[in-house]
């Protein structure tokens, strides 16, 4: 994939040697201006985890040559990596090896630690000759100074081991039409190697001298042996001296590397332990304030950050508010708590608010870099607190920003680094999960409390309504009794005198008067029957049923036989299933069957042939007819008292029958429902416990 000019490709350790060379050789150069021109910052160069882009490298070299006037400074900076002043990663890597040639054998492993722009490979072409090939990644366009700097690094590898400058021939270069940069490196043996060769030569000469003196002139044997021994001892001492010096240098570097490695291991262990402790806090605590307090304590004591704050979104989602901090005095905490972080679109955005909105971490190496971006009042406060550099990381859970974690450490001389940013960036989402879980748990507790209070209120209201309904039910029962009993006598008086008047004075009345009296008598009789049904309804609701096995098939046959007597000329087809036995009250079930079969008989009277059937299917009893039926959209009115679905002029009735059926069946542990089709008939289903039920 082609690389952008702004893709980070070059490690900051490359440019650290430039700055150290400038401080020694060009102390008057304005390093701050040089870095600013290249878009670099001091803390970024000192941070071994930071990487720079090709655009920054080009600007850096351009300005560097301009301020120093040295066209070859890139190669000199590469050589300077071998200087004792630059006790950096190159010396740590190189001095731990046997010799410079082994460095190039491992170049493909070493190079990625410093550059992502290319791939390096090496092959041996002679006893002390190596060919290096640098192939650039697609889209990478370096400048010639980087090629010179690379040659300087190659030379530094030999200087570290006491070698003379190697002979480096740039056989192929991308800046001269080549597809890769190819380097042929030849070198002479080191001084220690040459002394060792001289020592071995003297040993051989000493042996030859002894043999020659013994054979030709025994008198010269003593001086010859003495002279050979002196030369041998001299070369041996020099050889041991340089070997010891090189060994001590290598051991010193290895000890330094080991100490740094142990320090890094300890730092990584502390960080891993801190993350583990934060995970334990999250798994054992549910209160938000307790979680934040414990996390802040771990950041302060385990990871060594001097100060930090946690700001979270307020319930109205209008601003960020301080919810936790560490390393601040009570006065400083109060001053920080008064800082406002509004999230409205028109409000000024500081670093924390921008971090919250973009959900991207921010490393501020020098607070002067954000003077123009920060809110003036907030910047004055953090400046007064002595903050020099700080890190902001968004607290995010499930893609939603919940707040911001910010830390700083005024005690660090070099400020916070990219490694700190990576650590805080990894901890912030863990805090986000705990914050979200704590918020959800708090919401669940609040909702549970609201539901509990609502349930208690509902229970009180239900108790009140139940009491009111019980009172109304008692009053309704009293009204039923009053209507059924108290109105019966005056009603009989009304239609009884009508009958006497019709019998005694009928011959004196004209036809309209006789019809009026007949209507009065008929209405009184219907009213008395209605009162009887109301009394039955009241008794049904209050009577305690006596459950026993009841043969509904026998009841159905008896009721249908009685109905046939009332209309013997009607053509009927009756079907009654045998052996339908249920558990219920004999009197109530007789009333149920009378109502259901009576309705079937009544509403099928206009059919040419009445068809009525009774039976049971799968434990459900049914009464089916081919009468008028009904519209299912009005089925909810079937069991409502005094509700009739058909014209009263065509079919008589008082509208209490099905309501009584429902109440009677419910008192016996059953239920009833109906299905119908207008003009085609209806079927009423009901359930009751079987005969063997307890």
TrEMBL record:
EC number: 2.7.13.3
Tree of life domain: Bacteria
Entries under SMART domains matching the protein: GAF, HATPase_c, HisKA
Catalytic activity, as annotated: ATP + protein L-histidine = ADP + protein N-phospho-L-histidine
All copies of domain Histidine kinase, residue ranges: 482-692
Top EC class for this record: transferase
Keywords: Kinase, Membrane, Transferase, Transmembrane, Transmembrane helix
Transmembrane domains' residue ranges: 220-238
InterPro entries per UniProt: BphY/WalK/GraS-like, GAF, HATPase_dom, His_kinase_dom, HisK_dim/P_dom
PANTHER family named among the record's database cross-references: BACTERIOPHYTOCHROME, TWO-COMPONENT HISTIDINE KINASE
Protein name in UniProt: histidine kinase
Organism (species): Geomonas subterranea
